[in-house]
Each structure stands twice: as structure tokens, then as C-alpha cells.
């Protein structure tokens, strides 16, 4: 069960971070602070979301074996 909770938290962190980074990218493009080639759901956004998902997975409670 703790593995399921950790996976669930990681998935939620990934989705929420990706949504937030896409919204931030859209605002930056519209305000002309970022190049229009940046695009939404690009490598930068997915990479950032993966980093946050990994951090959430590592901080989640895990069952101790041993």
C-alpha cells in the first residue's frame, strides 16, 4: 500500500506541475518575455514536471524491508 500512495503522489505532482508550467509558459509568451518557439508541453515543462514527480516519490512514505 505505501508503494501505491507514493506512486499516486508522484503522478499528482507530475500532472499539477505540468499544468502550472504550461500556464506559466503561456503567460510568458503572451507577455513577450519568452520566445514564441518555447511552446507548451515542451522539454522544459516535462523535465520540470518529472523532477517534481521524482521528489514527491522520494519523500512519500515507503515500507521498510528487513
TrEMBL record:
Name of the protein described by the UniProt record: Protein of unassigned function
Amino acid at each position: 500500500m505505501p508503494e501505491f500512495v507514493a506512486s499516486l503522489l508522484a503522478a499528482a505532482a507530475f500532472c499539477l506541475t505540468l499544468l502550472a508550467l504550461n500556464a506559466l509558459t503561456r503567460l510568458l509568451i503572451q507577455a513577450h518575455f519568452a520566445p514564441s518557439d518555447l511552446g507548451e508541453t515542451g522539454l522544459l515543462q516535462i523535465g520540470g514536471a518529472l523532477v517534481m514527480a521524482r521528489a514527491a516519490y522520494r519523500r512519500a512514505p515507503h515500507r521498510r524491508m528487513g
